[in-house]
Design a protein that fits this description.
- The protein has one helix at residues 61-79, and strands spanning 2-8, 19-27, 30-40, 47-57.
- It has 80 residues and is α+β, with helices and mostly antiparallel strands.
- It has a single domain (2-79), classed as Transcriptional Coactivator Pc4, Chain A (Transcriptional Co-activator pc4, Chain A).
- The protein has a 4-stranded antiparallel sheet, with no helix packed on it.
- It is flat, with a radius of gyration of 16 Å.
- The termini are far apart.
- The model has no long low-confidence stretch (mean pLDDT 75).
Length: 80
Amino acid sequence: MSSLASFDRSNPEKPDCDRVLVQIREYHGERYIDIRAHYRTDTADDWRPTRKGISVRARELDGITAFETARTILTHRKTA
């Protein structure tokens, strides 16, 4: 898997804690969104991925967006 782009969601107040990377990756010609916690190794700036995370095919994001839209509508109806 090669990383096409990444976004670091680390906590600047706790630089030695796990950090979360959001990456766009490609594997066998298919693009994935990978959201994964990384930990710092004994060497200074070496971060390694943990098993804590999820990879979603980019083409499946429409389904996730639809789920979020439905959740927002249901939440709005409960408060109205």
